[in-house]
Amino acid sequence: MTALPGPVLITSTAVTGLVVLLLLSVGGAHLARRRRERRDLARRAELTPLVYTLLDGEQTAASLADAPAVLDEVVLHLLPQLRGNDRQVLRDLLLARGVVDRAAEQLSARAPWRRGRAAMLLGATGSTRYTPDLVTLLEDRSSDVRSAATRALGKAGDVAAVPYLLASLGSARPVPSGIVGMALLDLGTAALPALRSALESGAAPARATAASLLGLHGDLPAVAALTTTLDDAGAPTEVRLAAAGALGRIGAPQAADALARATVLAVDPALRATAAEALGRIGDPDSVPALAAGMTAADLRVRTACADALASIVPEGRARLGLLGASAGPAAPVARAALDAVSADSPRALAGAR
Amino acid sequence: MSDLLLDALQPLLNVLMSEFLLDVLLVSGWVLTGHVALFHLVTLLLVLAGARRVWRNRHWRGVEGHDETFASPLTPAVSILVPAHDEEAGILDTLSAALGQKYPALEVVLVDDGSTDRTFALVAERYALREVTPRPTADLPVDGEILSVHRATTGDPLLVIRKTSVGRRSDALNAALNHARHPLVCMVDADSLLETEALLQVSRPFVEDPDQVVASGGVIRAANGARTDRGTILEPRLSRRWVVRVQVLEYLRSFLLGRTGWADAQALLIISGAFGLFRRDVVLEVGGMDPLSLAEDAELVVTIQEHLRRNRRPHRVVFVPQTVCWTEVPESWTVLGRQRTRWSHGLAQLLWKHRRMIGNPRYGPIGLLAMPFFLLFELLGPVFELVGVAGVLASMAVGQVPPAVAGALLVLAIALGVLLSATAIAVEELTYHRYGRGRDLLALMGTAVVEHLWFRWAHSWYRLCGLGAALAGRSPVWTAMPRVGFSAEPAPAERLVPVGP
């Protein structure tokens, strides 16, 4: 160990120097940041009124073509909040300032964040011109970029992207289902035909996503396919769960029989509970016997879901809950609690009355 | 005869013994050097990985899509679970922050775990609580007796469960899990303040990847010293107490860099109990919180990952470094010591319980990287440090190691430690820069140097005590931390506390 001091001292000196350099840089960065923030704030205060005058038609996009770069940030911040002509005016301004062209060039940049930010910017402009480029980015090696491209496709509003978005769920470089779902929701009802096809013929993740989105759209024409999916015992559980939830959201009484069967006969407790919740949303009095049968389930989640569903079927369901609450057995406390939650003096009712 | 033999051999024995002792001292010196070098090398790699991730995230700021997450019907509802025992000092602020979250669908489940102060009375008065029939949705075992369940009548989605305390936070959390109704559960300490968008940020991974994400956590920062108003941090400030400052720095290192690095390596072992979001069905699947663990937060994360890996179910545990929960950290050495002893005891319990994961490739980066690291450097680290330092001192005493060598090694160890802290401060300033005042930044820089004079050694001692308690098989003891609460302005009596434990 006696041979150590030389190298150790050199290393210590180097590390200490590095520390001092780092701390000095931190101090410098702190001061520079504060100065930059003050300057940007002042510039924003100057430029924001100019953007409003542009929206009011008192200025032209060309007159702002040479304004400082902070203007682009102001415009990009405002863009998602606007619709119609105002949005078009800001889009034209970004085009006039070359922001859109620069973003298009950045789609093939080396740094993932540049590709991702460029995709987001192009999506925010709502232009369908770059859809093929954004679709290509759905296979990007960076997951962040794939997600950004997916969001951008949703914002751009080009329905032609729907099949690619659904395919991206099962790709070798997949995009998470939640991001695809949000993008498809952004595309609105125009995506419904593609979603109906995906429900019947897609891979499991695409089918589950399609079922959830059809439910969120309240798509009545999809009820038959959703019911078939729910009844298909060979379908993956995630797909059947999504179908049950969707049928509840749509509120289609014609699906009540299939949901009642799932509530009573399904093996998976989560599916039984979801089916019971859906029956509660539909509110069909014919579902009361199935829900009462579900109240004898061993799984507490199923019993609770059935009780809540019965409580929302007035008056038949609540009457059955009253009987169950007065009986002995595991259903009684759950039934009493569900009735208590919807009673006239429940906190929720009291809050609503205020 | 034998005495004569002994007398004859005595000089030889003396030589052998002294040589043996010298060898022991030499080995202990090398062991200490090796341990310090390896620890700093691994930590430096972690810090670099964490800094890289935080730096990358910086480029994406502003386009994360939080508004879309807020507006999306796909965003799952969250139950915020708050276990509270004698939390009258800050419970209303904590509830204000939780109920004031910018999130589309949430409920707060507060468990008054046998409080002996005015915790329940304050909440009952503020939210006009009304007793309701309990509606459990799960049946995890709870040792304490559920006394009553209440709902707010003010329109706030607040459920309050009163139960008898068995002295364990995990028991209160299991009671809350039984009554939570939403698919995600967020565990928050009763002395913590969530930033308004914290839930939205930490839930984003669940919205985006609902099939694989099972848990996510955010950054915890010390609220002591900050200016607050009704559960909102108006201005983060650094406390004047050194014991708090070193914890601020420690949290920066641990959360901003360490956990980000571990998460990047798919080996995140801990999501803080002060703020973590989990899929409720998965938590129920593994049986809820371990009732006997002293590190129930880490225990839950490890148990979930062990369960899912064993069943070959793809999953992700995520860390979101921009999400912030402000919490009250110990303001006295006694309380800090108790807390750290308990953490170390809990870590020992955890590593022993999941010992078959250590070094086991079946458990991926968790088994191969995280658990050996926590065993070698977190649990056994103080043993290496204190025994090694004792060895070096003894070597100096017998003249085997010149003071210059020992001094040089000490300086190097401290310099490396300061380098790690300085990196954390640099990343904080270049990315999130929560501390706007220059003087806070300067104080943090000073703390980076000062902590090595005493905190590091005191901390090692507390951890050693925790390890000792675990080895002695002492019963787990969950001690309550005295609360100061959050104040609108720093207390006027607050003064610079002298350095020293």
Structural notes for this entry:
The complex is a heterodimer of chains A (354) and B (501). Chain A is mainly alpha-helical and 354 residues long. Chain A has a domain at 252-343: Leucine-rich Repeat Variant (Alpha Horseshoe). Helices cover 71% and strands 0% of the residues of chain A. The relative contact order of chain A is 0.04. In chain B, the strands form two sheets. Chain B has a ten-stranded mixed sheet, with helices on both faces. Chain B has a two-stranded antiparallel sheet with strand order 9-10. The termini of chain B are far apart. Chain B has one domain (28-501): Spore Coat Polysaccharide Biosynthesis Protein SpsA, Chain A (Alpha-Beta Complex). In chain B, helix 7 (242-264) crosses helix 13. The chains are: A mainly alpha (354), B alpha/beta (501). The interface between A and B is large, with 61 and 63 residues.
Structural class designation of chain B: alpha/beta
**CATH class wording of the domain at 252-343 in chain A:** Mainly Alpha
* Helix and strand element order of chain A: HHHHHHHHHHHHHHHHHHHH
What is the fold-level CATH name, i.e. the topology of the domain at 252-343 in chain A? Leucine-rich Repeat Variant
State the separation between the terminal residues of chain B, measured CA to CA.
Answer: 57 Å
Gyration radius of chain B, to the nearest Å? 25 Å
SSE order of chain B in H/E notation? HHEHEHEEEHEEHEEEHEHHEHHHHHH
Structural class of chain A: mainly alpha
| Poorly predicted spans of chain A | 348-354
Structural topology:
The complex is a heterodimer of chains A (354) and B (501).
Chain A: H1 5-55, H2 70-78, H3 84-96, H4 99-106, H5 112-124, H6 131-137, H7 143-156, H8 162-168, H9 177-187, H10 192-201, H11 204-217, H12 223-231, H13 237-250, H14 256-265, H15 269-282, H16 288-294, H17 300-311, H18 316-326, H19 331-342, H20 347-353
Helix pairs in contact in A: 1-2, 4-5, 5-7, 6-7, 7-9, 8-9, 9-11, 10-11, 11-13, 12-13, 12-14, 13-15, 14-15, 14-16, 15-17, 16-17, 17-18, 17-19, 18-19
Chain B: H1 2-59, H2 66-71, E1 78-84, H3 91-99, E2 106-113, H4 119-127, E3 129-132, E4 146-152, E5 158-163, H5 169-179, E6 184-188, E7 192-194, H6 198-208, E8 213-222, E9 227-229, E10 232-235, H7 242-264, E11 275-279, H8 280-285, H9 296-310, E12 316-327, H10 333-353, H11 364-379, H12 381-397, H13 403-430, H14 438-450, H15 455-471
Parallel strand pairs in B: 1-2, 1-6, 2-5, 8-12
Antiparallel strand pairs in B: 3-4, 4-5, 6-11, 7-12, 8-11, 9-10
Helix pairs in contact in B: 1-7, 1-12, 1-13, 7-13, 7-14, 10-11, 10-15, 12-15, 13-14
